[in-house]
Amino acid sequence: MPVYYERRQLVTPGDLLAENDYFAGENTFKENGKIYATSVGLVNYEEKRVYVLALKSFYVPMVGDTVIGKVEEVTLGGWIIDIKAPHSAMLRASDALERPFKPQRDDLPSLFDVGDMIIAKIVAHDRTRDPLLTILERGLGKITRGQIIEITPTKIPRVIGKQGSMISLLKQLTRCQIAIGQNGRILVNGKTPEDERLAVMAIRKIDQEAHTTGLTDRVTEMLRKEKGEKEVLKNDAKETRKND
Amino acid sequence: MTQKKLEKMIDENDVRIDGRKLRELRPTKIEVGVLGNADGSAYIEQGKNKILAAVYGPKEAHPKHLALPDRALLRCRYHMAPFSVQERKSPAPSRRELELSKVIREALEPAIFTEYYPRTSIDLFIEVLQADGGTRCAGITVASVALADAGIPMRDLVTACAAGKVEGRLVLDLNDYEDKGGDADMPLAYMSTASAITLLQMDGNLSGKEFEQVVNLALEGCKQISQIQKEALIVKYVVAKEAETEREAEVGEE
Question: What is the pTM of this model?
Fold first, then answer.
């Protein structure tokens, strides 16, 4: 079982990764029993599988993904939504209303207008059909407050962490509600602007350093430090007021 | 070949007009991700050549009737800036630029998994800022790096290099002066994994034996440039890694 790279080594398209006994995983392809990389990224060898963790990519829609999209256009029977993918997605009125859609009664622009942001789920998508969305599930629908940040879609798993470790840490330390779209958009909703600022800072850090190890610890440290400094400043202010 | 030769292009010590040996490439430098607004970008300096490449996509193909049902549409524009040559060049696409756009597209398309993204288009722009011979090769080289930077899955990086004959001697990577005054010039693009040649053009005259030697010489050049491409792509991320370790070291010192 020849293997040509160490784990987590950077590879470029066309690099020979392994031979024969492996399966070709993400961002690799097999030709004549040889497995090559197709993207710039970090190579990983599992027991039977080789894959490359791409460092830069674009979002490819998958059925079942939750995404954050922006209304591009209101049509007769629904909306066209930009989900940062190669194709725009379609949200049909019947997938947005809990009752049958009647064009005479239901005014679509009053539900979602051009420019509105929505959280939606992809229900259908294949080679011949543009992605189809629904918002008829818990936690989906129009976004009314908070801020949206965009990161590289491949780094979304890093923001979530192993079994959601990173995301629960972020929620806990910043006291923000965070909704993640698989298409690289993240909605941050905090009680105070300061909380939101912290959460955005942490997510930016994860985005930049996604390919390094020990990230969870560093993010914790950074958040604690930032919060600590704020506390110290507050206490200092109190002190000076007391002294006056 | 109407141009009058002013001096010998290869001296008695086998040194070429720009000080290179016969089988030596021009100094080549590639930078990745130089443009903020494009999905992927790269910049190459090969001798006096300066070329930018930018990639957009895959995105919905416009106009829609051009979209292909089974694969992505690759569109390529090779363009020379008016100031890229000695005499001002009209900015309108010339016959030559149209042809180069086509051969560059055909040289790159076999490397891209276009079948993964049906009904989309990938737009590629190659902008020659300064030209000194062999711009189609440098253009292909830098474009494939820009495609990789855009995260588009590829079978391999395509590398291109020219070789030819000057004053009866076989030389690698001709510059503009050697190209115009030489006997033959052969640009060649190559994918190493499939060991496939995706572009092969030639002007001038070569014997059958010379032809074979020149192909091998150009392939040799491609292999060297391929290393530079890979390093350029890796450096972009290693820099991020190193900055991180430095910061950690500083924190440690505190």
Answer: 0.88
